[in-house]
Write a structure and sequence with these properties.
Elements lengths: L4 E3 L6 H5 L7 E8 L5 H11 L8 E5 L4 E5 L7 E2 L10 H4 L4 E6 L2 E7 L5 H20 L18 H4 L2 H4 L27 E8 H10 L4 H20 L8 E8 L1 H4 L8 E4 L2 E2 L8 H15 L2 H15 L2 H4 L3 H16 L5 E8 L4 H4 L2 E8 L7 E8 L2 E8 L5 H12 L4 E5 L3
Parallel strand pairs: 5-6, 9-12, 12-14
Antiparallel strand pairs: 1-4, 2-7, 2-13, 3-4, 6-7, 8-15, 8-16, 9-10, 9-11, 14-15
Helix pairs in contact: 2-4, 7-8, 8-10, 8-15
Length: 422
């Protein structure tokens, strides 16, 4: 029987093209349990998920015209968590599997090559893995719902679709934005990634955000912008400064009603230009919040979708061999994608698990890696009554984390700090 294969979705096309030894776009979703993980049961649970979530059990293949994903002939083997998060996924590893599953004490962690899915799709897979593990380990039954799926049903067609193709406008939006301030530092030559996690009380974070009339994402982005502006003030005079913009992924499922488990996210870059004057924190909150509200509309995002979809439909590009496509996509990415922001804040929001899992799941976390050309990134996930803010970097300096978490405490949000030694 021939193996199933999947076209890369529109967002995924870029990831194989720009991957390199010191950067590979991988993210992690982890689940902290109340008891130590049994690896044998975890392996059984993972194997159980394969028929229900086939698009996650694939390898990356290189065709003459495009990369594609093909059903893997090998099982994904669970393994002890042996190193720092998000180690490089080599092309050799991706030809075996695009997914890793780790365990360490009471933690289950899944790492995804970004061509498989975005954070929302990955969090659904990880939550279902945890649910199936709990069912096998403790004999409970976790009901299907918004996040948890019935593993006995066939995969739904809408879960496998490229939702970008369905929702593109007829006219593409422009890509050009002014270059933002670049964070710098002393790069870790070993490839080590420093991870600092701020554990905040979700209620306190919501109350602080609501005092300024904004969402948690806008609140955190404003604080991050304030922290970066302070750092820029120390190294550049006002007339030589650059805009400070925070890259924020927008989950398009909410705008278009999509059920896809693949990538369906685009980014916006709200921010301010310090050369225009100083900003209070309240002004930063208001500005970023209203920029997001103004641009995260179905009509505007459809134009941005079209800017990604239309080039791949050009006959000259469709007929070009994959190595030539790689050259073009690398150039476009380096000239536009990472010049418009200082770093990402990727917030998956509050992941609401079924009550049947509540006594077993203590926490969930979301970790993204540094980008190709800037050294810091931030990812956020709320689970239960806690919000986990993960700040990762591939440089030695921790000034941004110090400013950001200190500012959070000053704004009335107590934070417990954890670190992997960075």
């Amino acid at each position: 029987m021939p193996k199933k294969w999947y076209r890369l979705d529109t967002a995924a096309l870029i990831f194989p093209a720009i991957a390199r030894r010191d950067w590979c776009n991988v993210f992690r979703i982890s689940v902290g349990l109340s008891e130590e993980v049994d690896p044998q049961v975890l392996q059984q649970a993972l194997d159980d998920l394969r028929p229900r979530f086939p698009s996650f059990f694939v390898t990356l293949r290189k065709g003459f015209f495009w990369y594609y994903l093909e059903e893997s002939g090998r099982p994904v083997q669970v393994q002890p968590d042996y190193a720092y998060p998000l180690t490089f996924m080599s092309s050799r590893e991706l030809r075996r599997n695009c997914l890793r599953v780790f365990y360490y004490r009471n933690r289950i962690a899944v790492e995804f090559f970004h061509a498989l899915a975005d954070g929302r799709g990955g969090s659904i897979f990880a939550a279902n893995l945890a649910a199936r593990y709990l069912e096998r380990r403790y004999g409970i039954e976790v009901p299907a719902g918004d996040i948890i799926r019935d593993i006995h049903e066939a995969p739904r067609r809408e879960e496998l679709e490229d939702s970008f193709l369905k929702n593109a406008a007829v006219k593409a939006a422009g890509r050009r934005e002014e270059t933002a301030f670049r964070l710098r530092g002393s790069k870790e030559e070993s490839g080590f990634k420093h991870l600092i996690t701020g554990v905040a009380d979700t209620k306190a974070l919501l109350e602080a955000s609501h005092r300024y009339g904004v969402t948690v994402t806008s609140f955190l982005a404003a604080l991050m912008a304030q922290s970066i502006m302070g750092m820029q003030d120390e190294v550049l005079p006002k007339k030589r400064q650059r805009p400070v913009k925070i890259t924020i992924p927008v989950d398009l499922r909410r705008l278009y009603g999509s059920k896809t488990l693949r990538n369906f996210t685009l980014v916006l870059n709200p921010g301010v230009d310090p050369r225009y004057g100083s900003y209070t924190f309240a002004e930063l909150c208001s500005s970023i919040h209203h920029q997001l509200k103004a641009y995260a509309t179905p009509q505007n995002m459809a134009g941005m979708i079209a800017a990604n979809v239309q080039p791949q439909q050009l006959v000259v590009l469709r007929l070009a061999p994959v190595f030539l496509k790689n050259v073009v996509m690398k150039h476009v990415y380096l000239s536009t994608a990472e010049k418009s922001g200082c770093l990402n804040i990727s917030n998956l929001g509050n992941l609401k698990l079924p009550e049947e899992m509540a006594g077993y799941v203590q926490r969930m976390e979301f970790i993204i890696g540094p980008q190709l050309s800037y050294p810091n990134n931030c990812s956020v996930l709320s689970c239960g009554d806690k919000t986990y803010i993960n700040m990762i970097r591939n440089i030695r300096e921790s000034e941004l984390e110090r400013r950001f978490f200190s500012g959070l405490v000053e704004l009335g949000v107590p934070v417990e700090i954890e670190s992997n030694g960075g």
